Structure prediction request, 77 residues.
Amino acid sequence: MDEMVCKVAERSGVAADTVRTVLTTAVEFIKERLPPQFATQADMILKGAGGSGGPGSAGGAAVGNLASGVMGKEGAR
Prediction:
């Protein structure tokens, strides 16, 4: 989450504390609407587990699984 806060703060010119509050609220809102297994994957992604989240990383695979599951595609884990 820290990396996202820094990027958003840098690009928007908004204070990092304000960005963190907004992003935390948005993430909580989204996670409340996800099935529990996807909320857990979202936590892992935001905490940076498994790498940067790029397409070839474990984080990127988690994003792909999360997206597939949310979209109802087969093979989501």
